[in-house]
Design brief:
Mean pLDDT: 94
CATH superfamily of the domain at 3-158 and 195-219 and 290-304: NAD(P)-binding Rossmann-like Domain
Radius of gyration: 20 Å
Number of helices: 12
Structural class: alpha/beta
Helix content: 25-40%
């Protein structure tokens, strides 16, 4: 029996993938939700109400992953949420150290045939590059390289979440009125992709992982619908009925942007420095993807990709309630 295990099943991407997989799976396919939570916790109990089976698997405990993969044929690996592991910068080990725990367990598990890794849809240069200006992408790239070390793997670079636009818009506070200009060092087009659409596409791939093995596939909306951060600001302004001014200060003034968010917004400096490099990647066109895979998979389900315009309008409306 094909058995698919999903890490991070209680998170946004893992949860969307689990939900879609349960709606699409053939009767012969078994689904297992993996979580770092323990039996009796609120997260465990919530997963038990939806998933056919729930197992404990922690990136901090390799033995738990080995046990959790018993009988599993396909592992869907969602990146660890512990982003602080990446803050060392340079060549220091980051989140890929957690990912290696799951990959090593899968490589040793006799039943596992495929690993499907949820990477990030940056590093686009007309194909799939192994370089990125964004610090957030580096652990993903190192994980992708690690996957080439022996297991049969498919890499799915997930489109930048449409629901994450407040983060790119200078940590925009959706419920509150705008306060002055949004300052970012650079800007560029982004193929914003709804989390629910990613969940559906991931589920479709997980039902036929061999068809995607050995290559990198982008799951993202297409370049024709891309919108820059400044354009997102215009959409927010339209939805709110008030001005939202995006100030592109220039990458040479990146340090000024960092100090602003640390001193004025009270954000952690290590985090801001790690995140701010993402804007240079946008300016370089790394998020302007043109891969038809997501669109094709959704079309097979009778769906079209959700527009970022609709996501922004909904989030602003809900935030103001």
């Amino acid at each position: 029996m094909p058995t698919i295990a999903i890490t991070g099943a209680s998170g946004k991407l893992g949860g969307a993938t689990l939900s879609s997989l349960l709606s699409l799976r053939p009767p012969s396919t078994h689904i297992i939700a993996l979580t770092s939570s323990h039996p009796g916790s609120a997260t465990w109990t919530a997963l038990c109400s939806t998933a056919p089976e729930v197992r404990h698997a922690s990136f901090d405990d390799p033995a738990s992953f080995a046990a959790a993969l018993a009988g599993v044929t396909t592992l869907f690996l969602v990146s660890t949420p512990r982003i602080s592991m990446d803050f060392g910068g340079g060549g220091a080990a980051g989140r890929e150290a957690h990912h290696a725990v799951a990959i090593d367990a899968a490589a040793r598990a006799p039943s596992v045939r495929d690993v499907v890794y949820a990477s990030l849809a940056l590093a686009w240069d007309g194909s799939a590059s192994d370089r990125s200006r964004a610090a957030v992408m580096r652990a993903h790239l190192r994980t992708e390289a690690y996957l080439r070390g022996g297991v049969r793997a498919a890499v799915l670079r997930q489109g930048l979440y449409a629901e994450s636009w407040p983060l790119y818009l200078g940590y925009y506070d959706v419920p509150a009125a705008s306060e002055g200009p949004v300052r970012v060092p650079a800007d560029g087009a982004v193929c914003w992709t709804a989390i629910a659409d990613l969940g559906r596409a991931n589920a479709a791939v997980l039902l036929q992982p061999a068809a995607y093995a050995g290559r990198i596939t982008y799951l993202s909306t297409r370049a024709a619908g891309a919108r820059s951060v400044a354009e997102i600001g215009e959409l927010v302004a339209r939805a709110r009925g008030e001005e939202v001014r995006v100030e592109i200060v220039g990458e040479e003034r990146e340090e000024e942007v960092v100090r602003y968010y640390v001193e004025e917004k009270g954000l952690e400096e290590a985090y801001v420095r790690w995140w701010t490099s993402t804007y240079g990647a946008l300016a370089a066109g790394e998020a302007r993807v043109d891969d038809p895979t997501l669109e094709r998979l959704l079309e097979g389900m009778g769906r079209e990709p959700v527009r970022v315009e609709d996501v922004v309008e909904r989030m602003v409306r809900e935030g103001r309630k």
